[in-house]
Amino acid sequence: SQTIHQWPATLVQPVGSPLSLECTVEGTSNPNLYWYRQAAGRGLQLLFYSVGIGQISSEVPQNLSASRPQDRQFILSSKKLLLSDSGFYLCAWSPPGDQYFGPGTRLLVL
Amino acid sequence: EDQVTQSPEALRLQEGESSSLNCSYTVSGLRGLFWYRQDPGKGPEFLFTLYSAGEEKEKERLKATLTKKESFLHITAPKPEDSATYLCAVRKDSSYKLIFGSGTRLLVRP
């Protein structure tokens, strides 16, 4: 069966520091991969998606970037965090069709 | 503009009191409507995908239905463990993107 991992689970970072969140998927090959952000009490906002290694599509212009160095690895990065980057970050994967989410990373920027 | 609206924002039920959650959508070329359950601090858990008007799917006490303009998630004789936020999302033709509503927070009291 397929499993999706995210780490770290929780992260507290100062404003202006860099960020790297990692997502890996097991038990499948060539998945579509997604990064979402969820603000408190709100729905999910798609940030990036990828249909293959090195292929990244950005949905929202912002302070973040994404990379896919391996088939089942998806990384969310920032060079300098802003207060507004705080939130719950979710990685998801799909074959064509349904999307399945990871456990999420809670990011607090102080 | 593509939009997904969920109602009510919050719902309190007594154990055993059946009810329905609503998800209305305006999107051209619906390719699928998705329901997820999300517990506090966790990633969304996939429940159902509906593809065409008239389709119904069931899982334990949950039943999802779809029309051309909205979907209902019916909860029959809910239990306290059904307490969670329920998220609805739609996918358009020729798109990998899911458009999410802001969710319904369900609380079931014993």
Features:
heterodimer; A: 110 residues; mainly beta; Immunoglobulin-like; 7-stranded mixed sheet; 4-stranded antiparallel sheet; 11 strands; 58% strand; B: 110 residues; 6-stranded mixed sheet; 5-stranded antiparallel sheet; 0% helix
What would you say this structure looks like, in words?
The complex is a heterodimer of chains A (about 110) and B (about 110). Chain A has about 110 residues and is mainly β. Chain A has a single domain, classed as Immunoglobulin-like, CATH 2.60.40. Chain A is built from no helices and eleven strands. Chain A has strands at about 5, 10-15, 20-25, 30-40, 45-50, 55-60, 65-70, 75-80, 85-95, 100, 105-110. In chain A, the strands form two sheets. In chain A, strands 2, 4, 5, 6, 9, 10 and 11 form a seven-stranded mixed β-sheet that branches. The model of chain A has no long low-confidence stretch (mean pLDDT about 90). Chain B is an all-beta fold and about 110 residues long. Chain B has one domain (about 5-110): Immunoglobulins (Immunoglobulin-like), CATH 2.60.40.10. Chain B contains no helices and eleven strands. In chain B, strands 2, 4, 5, 9, 10 and 11 form a six-stranded mixed β-sheet that branches. A five-stranded antiparallel β-sheet of chain B has the order 1-3-8-7-6, with no helix packed on it. Chain B is globular and about 45 Å long. The mean pLDDT of chain B is about 95. The interface of A and B includes residues 42, 90, 101 and 106 of A.
Give the beta-strand count of chain B. 11
Work out the radius of gyration of chain B. 13 Å
Mean pLDDT across every amino acid position of chain A: 92
Alpha-carbon distance between the two ends of chain A? 38 Å
The oligomerization state is: heterodimer
Query: How many helical stretches of chain A?
Result: 0
Number of helices of chain B: 0
Question: What CATH architecture label of chain A applies?
Answer: Sandwich
Secondary structure: helix percent of chain A: under 10%
* CATH superfamily label of chain A: Immunoglobulins
CATH homologous superfamily classification of chain B: Immunoglobulins
Q: What would you call the shape of chain A? A: globular
What fraction of the residues of chain A are assigned to beta strands by DSSP? over 45%
Q: What is the number of domains of chain B?
A: 1
Could you name the ranges of chain B where pLDDT drops below 50 across 5 or more consecutive residues? none
Through-space gap between termini of chain B: 41 Å
- Order of helical and strand elements of chain A: EEEEEEEEEEE
